[in-house]
Design brief:
Blueprint (H helix, E strand, L loop, with lengths): L1 H18 L2 H22 L1
């Protein structure tokens, strides 16, 4: 069960890297993290 989830997750990441450029993927990650930090910052 755990290995099945791990495979699914790695497949998703692999698909993302094929669809996007790796730099664009990292950029999206940074934006998401920044947005999350701002969200927690305003709620606290």
């Amino acid at each position: 069960m755990i290995s099945q989830r791990a495979n699914l997750r790695s497949n998703c990441i692999f698909t993302h890297q094929k669809t996007f450029n790796i730099s664009n993927y990292i950029l999206l990650e940074k934006i998401e993290v920044t947005f999350t930090i701002q969200l927690y910052g305003t709620s606290n």
